[in-house]
Design brief:
alpha/beta, Rossmann fold, Helicase, Ruva Protein, domain 3, 3 domains, five-stranded parallel β-sheet, 12% strand, elongated, nucleotide-binding, ATP binding, AAA+_ATPase, transcription
């Protein structure tokens, strides 16, 4: 017969042939346990077959079968039940022999004290609960093993696809295509690579793509910004340290190089490191081993190192600020990442991706970027590269009144750059007065007026009514100026 599900209170079976003793134990335990009683071994076995018993508390001296003999049977048939013997005889050979044979959890002496008895039984109930939880977890892990393995593999593939070279945003005519083609070739070669380029151009993104397209893709990819920490902390972070190596080293620490063992390490801003640290880093690259701070022996490491910098390391070497031997260890091959101003064709793709990323985080939807916004973004030179572009996207989203992202919400410097680019194009094509300020006073005033009118129109997304109101003109007057300055073509 299958016993019912476990009760909310842990169930305890009290086996004692003395009724008065049974009742005393029931009164003591009934607030914390669901109490069942039996006067003989046969009755006890019947209860065990019918109920989900977590603890068996058994008197040793009973007619017919002793407590130890009963608990031997309990161990064989219900091994998960906690077995406790209670007796008034301290030298009983049966009890001593049965502690191991019957798997007795606790041996209690009469007369028992209620507080001590409750404490012992509560501890036994917790031990039983933990044992049941461990068994259930082990069973779940056995049955879920293939599922978990499949989920881990799926997650690894998802990360690999997200950071693969094919995921790097670039237009068909982008100079990034040549960079990605080179990265693809280098991925299969287990050699150090140096990534150079301005800050914010995506060097870390390319380093991840290189790692996830390489044979080391299943291992760790670890990043450390070498310019963010002083030498001692950087050495501890990368190489680890032993307990007591310096003030505050309260325990051993595994360094990032050891965490990346078998995988790839990106050392960002490598040009910011000191000469003393460069010597220690050189040993790791030359010998394939590192020494944690305070350790007596070096540890072997197998890590592919990718270095990144926005400095010209060849100049740094010539001027004595960077070790020449370390430079040649890091730069088996150098990849230069072009700045955003040299690839304006990529700006629409990157800006759209930034909008998608932000709207997912905010739980809002926005209309696709208009041609006007894209034209303004492509006109700016982006000294801060993709980081600066992200800020402009966030600015438009923060100032948006509805679901449209307007050019009027771009920074003034971006709007001026778009205006100047348009003026230059029109001036070169037809000598339009939107060109540079030159000529007599009347011509220069007209040029300034045309610029003011166009900038106002851009801010109001070419809403002529709003622009005319701001400029203090009628719609007819504004339309006349647009025709005069050739702005009606916009």
């Amino acid at each position: 017969m299958t016993p019912p599900l476990p009760p909310e209170l842990p169930a305890i079976l009290v086996v004692d042939d003395e009724i008065r003793s049974q009742e005393a134990l029931r009164r003591t335990l009934e607030e914390d346990f669901e109490v069942f009683t039996a006067s003989t071994a046969e009755d006890a076995l019947t209860v065990l077959e019918r109920e989900w018993i977590r603890i068996v508390l058994c008197d040793q001296r009973m007619p017919g079968t002793s407590g130890v003999a009963l608990l031997r049977q309990v161990r064989e048939r219900w091994p998960d039940a906690i077995r406790i013997i209670i007796s008034g005889y301290t030298d009983s050979e049966d009890i001593i022999a049965g502690i191991n044979e019957a798997g007795i959890y606790q041996y209690l002496l009469k007369p028992w004290q209620p507080e001590q008895l409750l404490l012992t039984l509560k501890s036994a109930a917790e031990a039983a609960r933990l044992h049941a939880d461990n068994q259930r977890l082990a069973m779940e892990l056995r049955t879920a093993g293939p599922v978990l393995e499949k989920q881990v593999h799926s997650r690894r593939e998802s990360v690999r696809q997200r950071f693969a070279l094919d995921a790097v945003l670039r237009a068909p005519d982008s100079p990034m295509n040549a960079v990605c083609a080179l990265i693809r070739k280098l991925a299969a070669l287990d050699i150090p690579v140096l990534l150079t380029g301005e800050s914010g151009t995506g060097k870390e993104l390319l380093a991840r793509a290189l790692h996830y397209d390489s044979p080391r893709a299943s291992e760790a990819f670890v990043v450390e910004n070498c310019g963010a920490l002083p030498d001692q902390l950087l050495e501890s972070e990368l190489f680890g340290h032993k307990r007591g190596a310096f003030t505050g080293a309260f325990e051993d620490r595994i360094g990032l190089f050891k965490q990346a063992d078998g995988g790839t390490m990106l050392l960002d801003e490598i040009g910011e490191t000191s000469a003393a640290f460069q010597v220690k880093l050189l040993r790791v690259l030359q010998e394939g081993e590192m020494r944690p701070v305070g350790a007596s022996r070096p540890l072997p490491v197998d890590v592919r190192v990718i270095a990144a910098t926005n400095r010209d390391l060849e100049t740094e070497v010539r001027e004595g600020r960077f070790r020449e031997d370390l430079y040649y260890r890091l730069a088996a091959l150098t990849v230069t990442v072009p700045p955003l101003r040299e690839r304006p064709m990529d700006i629409p793709l990157i800006a759209a991706a930034l909008v998608e990323e932000t709207q997912q985080a905010l739980g809002r939807r926005f209309a696709p970027l208009s041609r006007e916004v894209i034209t303004c973004l492509q006109a700016w030179r982006w000294p801060g590269n993709v980081r600066e572009l992200r800020n402009e996207v966030l600015r438009m989203i923060a100032l948006a009144d509805g679901d449209e992202l307007a050019a009027a919400h771009l920074s003034p410097r971006v709007l001026r750059a778009a205006e100047e680019a348009e003026e230059h194009a029109l001036s070169a094509a037809s000598g339009n007065p939107l060109g540079p300020l030159s000529g007599d006073l009347k011509t220069r005033l007209e040029t300034l007026e045309a610029r003011i009118v166009r900038e106002c129109l851009i801010r109001h997304r070419w809403n002529k009514t709003q622009a005319a109101r701001e400029l203090g003109l009628s719609r007819v007057g504004l339309r006349s100026k647009l025709t005069r300055y050739g702005l009606d073509r916009d």
